[in-house]
Amino acid sequence: MGARLEVHPVDPQPRLIARATACLLAGGVGLCPTDAGYALVWGLDAREAEERVRRMRALDTKHPFTVLCASMSDVGRMARLGDTAFRLMKSLTPGPCTFVLPASSDLPRRLKLDKRRSIGVRRIDHPVAQALLQAVEQPLLCTTVALPDAKELASHVADDVADHMLERVDFMLDSGDCQPGPTSVVDATGNVPELIRQGFLPLDL
């Protein structure tokens, strides 16, 4: 059973963020509130953690995970940003929007092994997630908390997430209910960005 760490939604306690950070740096899997529901999070190099997530969600090895970034400079290390994509991402994020971008040639070694040509990135507008990213000092991998055996799980309701997920993870940063999600998804791998999923907040490119 993971630890349920009750954090302030606007001013998260540093000792609790530090506890979650230590767990991630040791290869753990956690739950973190975002601007579009709670998400499973783990470190870029944590292969065993990623395998736990794949088994938990019954995903195959080709399923792409999203990278949470604290800044545009972090995004630039993960992906190739043309001028149009940069301006659009800067205007729409931080916020509940995922951008699919061409993968950078300087991806961390573990991600390079997956031979990714594109990568999904998010800049999150949630104080707890931002605090965690700042403490870890690197981007994190993430995915939704959807489970194959829990179709009624409300990913933005803290108690629902804890009831279904806490026994499967190492910690949960519980800041109460958050915005429901899903994120909008913008494909910016080509010359003209394309909205491929409308999220819970209407988005007009």
Question: Tags for this entry?
Answer:
single chain; 205 residues; alpha/beta; DHBP synthase; ten-stranded mixed sheet; 10 strands; globular
Compact summary:
The protein has 205 residues and is α/β, with parallel strands linked by helices. Helix content is 30%, strand content 24%.
Description:
By secondary structure, this protein is of the alpha/beta class. It has one domain (about 5-195): DHBP synthase (Alpha-Beta Complex). The chain is built from seven helices and ten strands. Strands 1-8-2-3-7-4-6-5-9-10 form a ten-stranded mixed β-sheet, sandwiched between helices. Strand 2 (about 30-35) and strand 3 form a beta hairpin. The mean pLDDT is about 90.
Topology:
Elements: E1 3-6, H1 14-25, E2 30-34, E3 37-43, H2 47-57, E4 66-69, H3 72-78, H4 83-92, E5 97-102, H5 109-112, E6 118-123, H6 127-136, E7 140-144, H7 158-165, E8 171-174, E9 184-187, E10 194-197
Parallel strand pairs: 1-8, 2-8, 4-6, 5-9
Antiparallel strand pairs: 2-3, 3-7, 4-7, 5-6, 9-10
Helix pairs in contact: 1-6
Distance between the termini: 43 Å
Give Rg in angstroms: 16 Å
Helix and strand element order: EHEEHEHHEHEHEHEEE
Shape: globular
Q: Please identify the structural class as seen in this structure.
A: alpha/beta
Uncertain regions spanning at least 5 consecutive residues: none
Please indicate the percent range of residues in DSSP E strands (runs of 2 or more).
15-25%
The CATH architecture is Alpha-Beta Complex
The CATH class designation is Alpha Beta
Helix content: 25-40%
CATH superfamily: DHBP synthase
Mean pLDDT: 92
**Total count of strands:** 10
For the biggest sheet, the summary is: 10 strands, mixed
